[in-house]
Amino acid sequence: MVDRVIAICPSTSQGLQDYSQNLYAELSQRVVAFRMLCNQDYTYIDKNPQATPIYGKNAITDVWLTVAQLRQFKPDIIHSQSTNLGLLCTLLLCKLVFDFELVLTPHSSKSHFGRPLYERFQVQIYNRCDGVIWHTEQDKERMEAAGVTTPQAVIDHGSYDFYTDYRPELTQSTARRELGLNEDDYVFLFFGYLRRDKRLDLLLNAFAHLDDSQLANATLLIAGKSIDDDLTARYIETAEEYGITDHVETHIGFVENDEVPVYFKSANTLVTPYDTISESGVVHIGFAFGLPVIATEVEGFAETFEHGTNGLLVPPDDRSELTGALNYSMTHHAEMQEMGAQNRERAQAEGWQEIAQETVEFYESL
């Protein structure tokens, strides 16, 4: 049995915090001693007695406090959810002193934030870890082809069904009234960080090409945090240029956990027209709320989605095909609802207990 584990989640990303909290709540019950090092803005600090909020002041303090925790706790395993280059270098140096196994879950084999230095040394970093966990076979195969020889495992992401526990009294009608949406419209939801690779520009273009009769009864609901204010402003200008502002509802900013159900319960279909993705927390939330998904046939989506079962897969960067999928969802409402119901069943079946057990077994294999 694995004895002492330190889990590390220094990120303020809600997706990483959601994943870490669900995994480590189960994982902590399968090891002798467990501690989690997290950011001072960790959402679940009051729900996690093992959480120690040390990150977020400055880089020097982060390093000093990390070393102090390692010296005090003396872990057998450190499992990091972060690919922060400074933190990883600190952990790799600490391995030489404290003699632990370092396991890393990068969540994607591609960087979404333009990190050329990290990407340059990515393979060398992974090969100095003792184990790497991915969520898709494509990520694992890509890194093997790049020269990663350290042990790697593919472990499913897990469900975000816990979001349905927030505001369970909400119905679609009350959620739409809260957001000021037309109760009779067909609502497409784009949710999450407004990053360039998530292709909101493509979705706006596809939505604008719906027939006038369909557009009259459709709403595109956009909710999420801006990463680049200039880019976000350009999206709003694009909607104006297309003449669809009366059918586009924007809520720009971070969405607190207890407000997430308002957006997902308002929607008929979730749309994720991304250029690249390994695993999407947004899609797992959509599944939990029983939404069908229109997604691009790329990487993680192509591996884990089934066209016609979970929703509709379309080629990436193809405006015409995306418009066709939007049209299909509006004209085949009952069929899309059935896909959503299957997604809800899948979310309920994807337990974190099995994922935690697979993670412990990977620790033990190192």
TrEMBL record:
What name appears for this protein in its UniProt entry?
Glycosyltransferase (Group 1)
Q: Which UniProt keywords apply?
A: Transferase
Select a single GO molecular function from the record's annotations and give it. glycosyltransferase activity
Record's CDD domains?
Answer: GT4_PimA-like
InterPro entries registered for this protein in UniProt: Glyco_trans_1, Glyco_trans_4-like_N, Glycosyltransferase_grp1
Outline the extent of the Glycosyl transferase family domain.
173-345
The organism's taxonomy opens as: Archaea, Methanobacteriati, Methanobacteriota, Stenosarchaea group, Halobacteria
Query: Where is the Glycosyltransferase subfamily 4-like N-terminal domain positioned along the sequence?
Result: 52-157
Gene3D superfamilies named among the record's database cross-references: Glycogen Phosphorylase B
Q: Which domain of life is it from?
A: Archaea
